[in-house]
Amino acid sequence: MEDYMANENIHIIDHPLIQHKITKLRDKNTGTGEFRKIVNEIAMLMSYETLRDLPLTEVEIETPIEKCKSPIRKGRKEVIVPILRAGLGMTDGVLKILPGAKVGHIGLARDEKTHVAHSYYCKLPSHLDERTAIVTDPMLATGGSAIDAIDFIKQRGGKKIKFMCIIAAPEGVKALSNAHPDVQIYIGHVDRCLNENAYICPGLGDAGDRIFGTVG
Ligand code: PRP
Ligand code: URA
Q1: Tens digits of residue pLDDT in 116-143
Q2: Which of 39, 157, 166, 174 could form a disulfide bond with 128, CB atoms 3.0-4.6 angstroms apart?
Q3: What ligand has the least distance to the C-alpha of 109?
Q4: If residue 201 lies in a helix (H) or strand (E), which one and from where to where?
Q5: Whose atoms come closest to the Cα of 111: which ligand?
């Protein structure tokens, strides 16, 4: 195992159902509708593990049999923050598990030549310091987009931040965990490497284009 993978904030969610669905995503013959559906399904499955440490408190209730104390969630509603565009593809999947969550948006696009992301949009809910933020993006390549998105959230007060992606390159995992060591990172699969265009190998191609049916 690579050294950085021993970091306790890095979680690989390699459930067989997720592995199976990732194989379908990788297949270049999987069309837009199916691809979009599977991205959301994976996000829903990953949410279950990603939200394992949500804070709870106890309330007293009465069952048909007797009174008892029982746990319920406490605190402000969570915020899901998709990185536009491709992160949007995961939002509905997370909302299936957290239907009341707020949704913020951060628009970032990588320059095709430099591979550096530039920001074009940011809208986040209030009270970020009291909410768990779940940043979604199917792809963690160089890590630049995820690092910038999390910088935005921290600048606006965000403290408890989780990053959820479906496929990561080792380079991106290292860069993100170095830049934001306090952030919990949830990954479906860590692939081999980046190619000369900073695409993940074997990867699944351009996630945004495959989710929205656009070309390059
Ligand atoms: C893709 C992807 C990530 C980013 C990952 O988005 O969805 O946001 O690249 O690359 P990085 O880790 O090297 O920053 P892209 O910039 O292509 O925009 P899009 O989602 O609008 O297609
Ligand atoms: N963004 C993608 O959509 N795919 C990659 O492989 C790298 C960045």
Answers
A1: 889 999 999 999 999 999 999 999 999 9
A2: 157
A3: 1
A4: strand 200-201
A5: 1
Residue 145: give its domain's CATH number.
Answer: 3.40.50.2020
Dihedral angle, C-alpha 103, 154, 199, 121, nearest 10 ° = 50
Q: Pick the residue whose CA is nearest to atom 5 on ligand 2.
A: 199
Task: Return the axis-axis angle of helices 16-26 and 32-50, rounded to nearest 10°.
Answer: 150
As a whole number of angstroms, the distance between CA 67 and CA 133 comes to: 34
Task: Find all residues with CB under 8 Å of 115, minimum gap 6, and list them.
Answer: 141, 142, 144, 197, 198
Q: Which of 4-13, 16-25, 71-80 has the least mean pLDDT? A: 4-13
Percent of the chain with pLDDT over 70: 99
- Please tell me the residue having the least CA distance from ligand 2 atom 1: 206
Q: Amino acid identity, residue 162?
A: K
**Residue for token digits 């690092």?**
147
Tokens linked to 96: 């299936």
For residues 177-189, average pLDDT: 98
The total of structural domains in the chain comes to 1
Would residue 132 show up in a list of annotated catalytic residues for this protein? no
Answer yes or no: 114 catalytic: yes
Q: Which amino acid makes up residue 196?
A: E
What spacing in Å lies between the alpha carbon of 57 and ligand 2's midpoint? 40
Question: What is the amino acid identity at position 23?
Answer: T
209 catalytic residue (yes or no): yes
Q: Which residues contact 176 (CB under 8 A, 6 or more apart)?
A: 140, 143, 146, 147, 150, 163, 183, 185
